[in-house]
Amino acid sequence: MINYFLLLFVSLFLALASSANAGSDTGTLDVTTTVSNSCSIGAGGEIDFGVYDPSAISLGTATGLNVTCNGPTVAWAIHSTESVATRLMERVGGTETLIYTLTNSSATALAVTNTSGTADGVGTAAAVINGAIAAGQNVVPGTYSQNILLTIVF
User: Fold this and answer.
1) Domain coordinates of the chain in residue numbers?
2) Does domain 42-153 have CATH number 2.60.40?
3) Which residues does 104 contact at the CB level (< 8 Å), separation at least 6?
């Protein structure tokens, strides 16, 4: 029984000693970040006209060209550094060229103000760019291509 009281006394003493030495305080921790509007053009956009037939107009639409934006409402526009007059695909392994045009979904030539839209919140939108190769071009057979540098402004 004495051991029981001794154990109780020691336990009570340690509990009081611990609480007598313990203290507490409160403080705050500020956590902040800034999220800015941002946009990017996804890689992989392509217009494939297929096989060109000089007797008919060849049409194509960009596939895989996505614009991803974040922000409450982000207005964006895609611009190309090349003028409409110099849209020439060059034959791979040669110097021959094939004239073509690019237009946005409003059928406006892609020169200075190309294709545009708005993104609400975080999301991805397809940028619609159409292309056409005029009929009647007498060109050497082969594969023709051109890389267009696009810049997104938001």
Assistant:
1) 42-153
2) yes
3) 110, 114, 115, 116, 128, 129, 130
Q: Cα separations (Å) of 13 from 4, 24, 151?
A: 14, 21, 74
- Contact call for residues 90 and 8 (beta carbons, < 8 A): no
E strand residue ranges, the chain = 38-41, 58-61, 66-70, 73-80, 88-91, 97-99, 101-104, 115-120, 123-126, 129-133, 144-145, 150-153
Measured distance CA(60)–CA(46) in Å, rounded: 9
Q: Which tokens is 103 given?
A: 């237009």
Q: Report pLDDT digits (tens) over 7-66.
A: 566 565 555 555 555 788 999 999 998 877 777 877 667 888 999 999 998 888 877 677
CB 74 within 8 A of CB 68: no
User: What tens digit of pLDDT does each residue of 66-84 get?
Assistant: 777 776 666 666 666 666 6
